[in-house]
């Protein structure tokens, strides 16, 4: 399953640098509203039109693209020494392969679990434990498919033992702590059918820290706490869909 998530993460960038997920649009204090031509034309006719404001904002936007394909849209506003970031990834639920529904949302959660440098006390010791968990998970699935109850019980016991060892090496929410200690606020993300968005704000002098954190978590992610996070997402589904008449209606409508 780890490889499935990683394939979804990297498969969208394989053909060109940072294509799809990593060929993202970063917005610093993004202004995204009022860009529909019909709306703009209608506003021009209003005595209280905001069209002049829109034009001033658009004229202050700066766009550029790095050699790796990462596109920046920057709006400078110097009223406060704050910089806000929105990393827009052009990948969402609509891109999920058949039989892998939810992988986009899952990836969003895992993007906060750290890297080889962040979120662990000893990655060299942690890595083989994570690989062992994936191996045991596959073996459990095979045993369940073959209705081997004794083997299932043995494998699940071993899985819990290895998982407890791996958990001891995790530095819980270290990325969030780094952001908070540097004066950051609003660390969060959302996933929709067409996009994934990661965002938070920093003091203006922490721009390089943001660059380091984002580069690390998108280029070198470690999907630790994978199985615990899976249960978190399943609980979200139970809350928002299975136990919600409106959620069930929306899901059936979309299907």
What is the radius of gyration? 22 Å
- Give the proportion of residues in helices: 40-55%
Distance between the terminal alpha carbons, to the nearest Å? 24 Å
Secondary structure tally, helices: 10
> For the record, what is the CATH homologous superfamily label of the domain at 62-115 and 173-224?
Metalloenzyme, LuxS/M16 peptidase-like
CATH topology of the domain at 62-115 and 173-224: Cytochrome Bc1 Complex, Chain A, domain 1
**Biggest beta sheet summary:** 6 strands, mixed
CATH class of the domain at 62-115 and 173-224: Alpha Beta
Short description:
This protein is of the alpha+beta class.
Textual characterization of the structure:
It is a single chain. With 255 residues, this protein is α+β, with helices and mostly antiparallel strands. The protein has helices at residues 2-11, 37-44, 51-60, 103-110, 123-145, 149-167, 174-181, 207-219, 226-242, 245-254; strands at residues 25-28, 61-65, 71-75, 82-89, 185-191, 196-203. A 6-stranded mixed sheet has the order 2-3-1-4-6-5. Helix 4 packs across helix 9 (226-242). The radius of gyration is 22 Å and the shape is globular.
């Amino acid at each position: 399953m780890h490889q499935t998530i990683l394939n979804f993460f990297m498969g969208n960038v394989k053909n060109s640098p940072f294509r799809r997920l990593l060929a993202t649009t970063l917005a610093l204090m993004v202004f995204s509203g009022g860009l529909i031509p019909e709306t703009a034309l209608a506003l021009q006719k209003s005595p209280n039109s905001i069209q002049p404001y829109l034009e001033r904002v658009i004229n202050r936007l700066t766009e550029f693209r790095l050699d790796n394909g990462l596109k920046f849209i920057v709006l400078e506003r110097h009223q406060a020494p704050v910089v806000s970031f929105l990393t827009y990834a052009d990948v969402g639920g609509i891109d999920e392969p058949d039989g892998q529904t939810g992988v986009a949302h899952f990836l969003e959660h895992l993007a906060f679990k750290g890297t080889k440098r962040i979120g662990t006390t000893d990655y060299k010791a942690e890595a083989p434990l994570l690989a062992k968990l994936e191996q045991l998970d596959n073996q459990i699935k095979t045993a369940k498919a073959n209705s081997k109850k004794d083997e299932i019980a043995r494998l699940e016991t071993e899985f819990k033992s290895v998982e407890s060892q791996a958990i001891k090496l995790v530095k819980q929410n270290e990325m969030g702590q780094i952001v908070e200690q540097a004066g950051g606020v609003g660390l969060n993300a959302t996933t929709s059918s067409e996009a994934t968005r990661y965002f938070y704000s920093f003091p203006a002098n922490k721009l390089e820290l943001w660059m380091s954190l984002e580069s690390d978590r998108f280029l070198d992610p470690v999907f630790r706490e994978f199985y615990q996070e899976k249960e978190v997402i399943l609980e979200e589904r139970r809350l928002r869909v299975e136990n919600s008449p409106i959620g069930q209606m929306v899901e059936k409508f979309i299907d």
